[in-house]
Design goal:
Number of helices: 13
Helix content: 25-40%
Oligomer: single chain
Number of strands: 14
Radius of gyration: 20 Å
CATH superfamily: Metal-dependent hydrolases
Strand content: 15-25%
Structural class: alpha/beta
CATH topology: TIM Barrel
């Protein structure tokens, strides 16, 4: 990469970022000017699944962190649906040991909200608190009002975030895609939007009363955007995320293929437009991939029987740049807020000498067989995107470099 030139994008996380990166590049013999390639602060994803311990046939800390580096990410927060799940200090330390040994980037684990993610008894929140980025039962909504209230009170005492997968079990009714036109036309069982937004509304009433820090995972409905927007206007301490696939695709893009199955599902065009509006007006604070790898066999059973979840770390930036920045829907600066500033500030995650180098004019076709991730299921297969990561540096070490 000698004799190349760079435009460095700054970050509010660290006013000295540009100077430090310029110095690093010059020390390794690469000149810097506003020209050919773009340099971004290390991206941060607060919602990924690295599957270890317990499900290493799907992904490992090593492969997950490597694919994150390939996507320009230097910090991720890993969800706790593992075996054993981190509901005690002992179980958390099993995961932390693997992270320390195998990760090439910063990996911050969540602890569960309840023991075994069963919603019946609080996990060992206090014991885990020093070494988790927050508490979540991701994949399962906490059904009991009293249990969620107890968790919020303890999280407030510990000054930790409750990070909620919001889903009312009684409203699921065996559904597996959005309860919309595609489901009705093709004879599939649908997941209604209320199953998401009703629990968000419940939780925000508790947050307003208790006063803890609260973050909503992967919102997908227009009602969720409206509820969160109104709560923020009232001063409720809430942030939220959505994923690239919810901003680019809707249920009109569905095919009879497991790579289009995730939870929450792809919603309607109106929902997608509301999410974009929420992204533009600041209601939605950050973009998170919900990177959720499964084996090829688990994703080969069609929409009804495939496992929920798609991968996203290696395509997220290019997808957002191609479909949001290039058309002028948001600016590159806003995309950096969504991928860098907001997640790091909200979750208190530092930015070291972490950055990635991109060729923004390079076009490519998404081919999952090129992924480092062990998971290959993505709804973006075959999509033409712009933006290729050439190098990622974490703590001053090159952790990804294109051949």
């Amino acid at each position: 990469m000698e004799r190349t030139k760079f435009k460095i994008f700054e970050t509010t996380c660290d006013p000295s970022f540009g100077v430090r990166v310029s110095t690093f590049l010059e020390n390794v013999g690469i000149g810097v000017s506003n020209s050919q390639y773009a340099v971004f602060p290390g991206f941060c994803d607060v919602h990924v699944h690295f599957r270890e311990p317990g499900f290493s046939y799907k992904e490992t800390i090593a492969t997950g962190s490597a694919c994150a580096a390939r996507g320009g990410y230097t910090a991720v927060c890993t969800m706790p649906n593992l075996s054993p799940c981190p509901d005690t200090r002992e179980h958390l330390d099993l995961q932390r040991k693997i992270i320390e040994e195998d990760s090439c980037i910063h990996v911050y684990p969540y602890g569960t909200i309840t023991m075994g993610q069963r919603g019946e008894e609080l996990a060992e929140l206090s014991a885990m608190s020093p070494d988790v980025c927050g508490f979540s039962d991701d994949g399962r909504g906490v059904q009991s009002d009293d249990m969620m209230a107890a968790a919020m009170k303890e999280a407030k005492r510990l000054d930790k975030m409750i990070v909620a997968h919001c889903e009312v079990n009684d409203l699921l009714r065996g559904g597996y895609i959005h309860d919309g036109d595609y489901a009705h036309t093709h004879g599939h069982r649908g997941i209604c939007s209320e199953s998401e937004w009703a629990q968000i509304a419940r939780d925000l009433e508790l947050v307003e009363r208790i006063g803890c820090k609260y973050h909503v995972c992967h919102i997908s409905t227009k009602e969720s955007v409206d509820i969160i927007r109104k709560a923020k206007a009232r001063g409720v301490d809430v942030t939220c995320e959505t994923g690239p696939h919810y901003l680019i695709l809707d249920d009109s893009h569905l095919q009879e293929d497991g790579r289009f199955k995730m939870n929450p599902p792809l919603r309607s065009k109106e929902d997608r437009e509301a999410l974009i509006e929420g992204l533009v007006d600041g209601t939605i604070d950050m973009i998170a991939t919900d990177h959720a790898p499964h084996s090829a066999e688990e994703k080969s059973r069609g929409l009804e029987k495939s496992a929920f979840g798609v991968v996203g770390l290696e395509t997220a930036f290019a997808a957002m740049y191609t479909h949001l920045v290039r058309p002028g829907i948001i600016t590159m600066e806003r995309l950096m807020e969504l991928l860098v500033d907001a997640p790091r500030k909200r979750f208190g995650l530092p930015l070291g000498l972490d950055f990635s180098v991109w060729d923004l004019e390079r076009q490519f076709t998404v081919d999952p067989q090129e992924f480092i991730s062990m998971g290959k299921a993505t709804p973006f297969t075959g999509m033409e995107l712009y933006g290729r990561c050439l190098m990622t540096v974490c703590d001053g070490n090159i952790v990804w470099q294109e051949d």
